[in-house]
Every structure is written in structure tokens, then in C-alpha cells.
Design brief:
The protein has helices spanning 25-30, 82-94, 120-124, 133-139, 150-158, 175-189, 193-205, 255-266, 274-277, and strands spanning 42-48, 51-58, 60-62, 67-68, 75-76, 211-212, 227-229, 235-237, 251-253, 296-300, 303-312, 315-322, 327-333. By secondary structure, it is of the alpha+beta class.
């Protein structure tokens, strides 16, 4: 808590100028190993009670051209996307278009009719029993860099003759469920998932650096490149820009935009979707799962938190809110 009582100024610029000038030395020291020429790094944004108190970039967004990371750098935040997908479904329920307890086949009749129905709620809670397409595609000879589409995912899932378990019996993370939910959003709203989130979330909240990545030919200003370090410390590019199917991930955004979303969802003026978004999933036997609608409910050092992480192709992201202190941290690294 002492980190945010004083000396918290917003600053961005070249990595060389991001040392001790401005900012908070205690926070900056955490990132000192990456805040250097020739190093990938991180963008950090922090809010207290919905008010931004710290925003800074460390290291480089692109090593080819020595472009530093700033608070305006755009990252692929991977599974942090899931809460935006779930929020879209919750909004459509408030619109009276669908119900979270609808059978998914009401919207995607192409899927098999199993012994038990699968509800949209179970899909959002990861209790659907649906196999993960990220495990299925390699079995079909497709690696992570193989271009796919929503239709291909839907067709593949329609050929699954059985579930892993009866819906509601277990918690098992399923990216397939969220890819299918994005298609439910499209069919229920008449807009693509990207169009719906832009119209109902990003534009109203002023999230100007946010969009669903659904066109790999699109030019993305201020985009960070993903890297991995070899054993000798050499950075190597691991981006996969041709993976442009949004649903379980593929949201591109800035850390400052994520603070806007967090304040909208958890601030003092709660939106109509808030209670539904924070309702914890339960198994058929009543056991709580610790997962709400695209959000993990956890404890850290005795404090209740709500948030989600994301990981893809060199990127690591975390958006977490400590509920009682009303402290939100958004961080993404490349």
C-alpha cells in the first residue's frame, strides 16, 4: 500500500529514460532487469478506487526498430478476453435476446445432441465437458500457427461424439466453449463478436486502443511483438499474427484501457451485468468452482481478488482487482 501513497506519476518514453527519473523507485526496481536496451518488457497500469495512480512502460515493444513500451502500447491479452465474451452474453440476456441457461444448441444446432444439454452458463463456468480445440487440432495435424476460422472450430466440435464428462460434474478449462460463445454472440446479436464488443463495450467506455483481432491483415499501430528467450538469453520472435479468431482470446488492448473496463465493472456505480458476472459457478453437487463469468475468484495474502490471466505467443497478461482495498493492477509483458 505504501507504494501508492506518494510519488506516483505517469511517465513514458524510451527505455533508457525510464530509470529513476519520475515514477516510483520501489515499483520500477521490480522491472529493472527488463528496463534496458535490447530487452522486451512490460506495460503496467494501476488504479486505486477507480482512479489511475501509476502507468508506465519498461523495455521494448519491438526490438527490430528499438520501439519502447509505453502505457499506450497494445498487447495481445489472450484469455483476459474471456470476461469480455461473457459480458457480451450477459448483456444479451439483459436485452431479452437469450438466457444464460439456454441450451447451446438453441443457437448452434450444428453441435451434437448429447445425453445431457449444455447451457451457456456451464460453458462460461468451464463445466461444460467440451473438449479443448487447442488439444484437438494437433491431433488433426495442425500446429499453433495453422490458420483457422470459427466455422472450422464449430465443425470440428460438431464431430465430437462424446463429452469429457456430463455437464456440471467437473470444472475443466475449455477454450472451445468460449470460441463457441463468440459465435452465439454473433447469431444472437446479428453482429460479429468484434463488432458487438466495439459497439457495446469499447466505444462507450472510451477504450480507444481495444479491439478483437479478427483480421490478420489489419495494421495495428503501437502493437507489441511477442518474444521468447533462448537459453543464451537471445530474444526470438514468437508472434502468430495469422491466428485471428477471437473468442477465447485475441483481444488487443492497452493496460490503461483495461483499467477503464475494471472501473466500469467493479466501480461504485455497478452496471446491470455486475452481479451476474461475479456469480460463482457451482458443480451439480453444489461445490463452488472459484470461477465466475470469465473471472477467477481467489484469495491472495488474505485479500479477496477477482481477475484473469492470459498467455499466448510470448505475451503474459494479468488483470486483477483486490476487492477491499479497491486496488487494480493491469500488466502485460512481451
Amino acid at each position: 500500500a505504501l507504494l501508492f501513497t506518494s510519488g506516483c506519476s505517469e511517465k513514458s518514453g524510451s527505455a533508457a529514460s525510464m530509470g529513476s527519473n519520475g515514477g516510483n523507485p520501489a515499483i520500477d526496481a521490480i522491472f529493472s532487469a527488463w528496463d534496458a536496451p535490447g530487452s522486451p518488457g512490460c506495460a503496467l497500469a494501476v488504479a486505486k478506487g477507480g482512479e489511475p495512480v501509476y502507468s508506465r512502460g519498461y523495455g521494448y515493444a519491438n526490438l527490430d526498430y528499438d520501439i519502447p513500451i509505453t502505457p499506450k502500447t497494445i498487447f495481445d491479452v489472450a484469455s483476459v478476453t474471456k470476461q469480455f465474451n461473457a459480458a457480451s452474453i450477459a448483456m444479451l440476456q439483459l436485452d431479452g435476446v437469450l438466457s444464460l441457461d439456454d441450451d447451446v444448441r438453441d443457437w448452434l444446432p450444428e453441435l451434437p445432441q448429447y445425453e445431457w444439454p449444455i447451457t451457456l452458463r456451464q460453458m462460461m463456468h468451464h463445466t461444460s465437458g467440451l473438449r479443448d480445440y487447442l488439444n484437438l487440432f494437433p491431433l488433426a495435424g495442425r500446429n499453433d500457427y495453422y490458420p483457422i476460422s470459427h466455422a472450422q472450430i464449430r465443425d470440428m466440435m460438431s464431430r465430437q461424439s462424446a463429452l469429457i464428462f456430463p455437464p456440471g460434474e467437473e470444472y475443466r478449462y475449455s477454450n472451445s466453449a468460449y470460441m463457441l460463445l463468440a459465435q452465439v454472440v454473433a447469431r444472437a446479436s446479428g453482429k460479429s463478436f468484434g463488432e458487438f464488443t466495439a459497439d457495446r463495450i469499447f466505444e462507450p467506455l472510451g477504450m480507444k486502443g481495444s479491439f478483437m483481432y479478427d483480421d490478420f491483415e489489419k495494421v495495428v499501430p503501437r502493437r507489441a511483438t511477442g518474444y521468447v528467450l533462448d537459453d543464451d538469453g537471445t530474444s526470438r520472435i514468437v508472434h502468430n499474427y495469422n491466428f485471428d479468431v477471437a473468442g477465447d482470446g485475441q483481444m488487443y488492448t492497452t493496460m490503461e484501457d483495461l483499467l477503464l473496463w475494471d472501473h466500469y465493472l467493479h466501480g461504485s456505480t455497478r452496471p446491470p451485468i455486475h452481479d451476474e458476472m461475479l456469480r460463482e459457478g457451482k458443480l451439480n453437487d453444489g461445490e463452488a468452482t472459484g470461477y465466475a463469468l470469465g473471472l477467477r475468484l481467489r484469495k491472495h495474502r488474505g485479500l479477496s481478488t477477482v481477475g484473469h490471466s492470459g498467455s499466448s505467443w510470448g505475451f503474459r497478461t494479468e488483470l486483477v482487482r483486490y476487492i477491499e482495498p479497491e486496488l487494480t493492477i493491469a500488466i502485460s509483458c512481451n
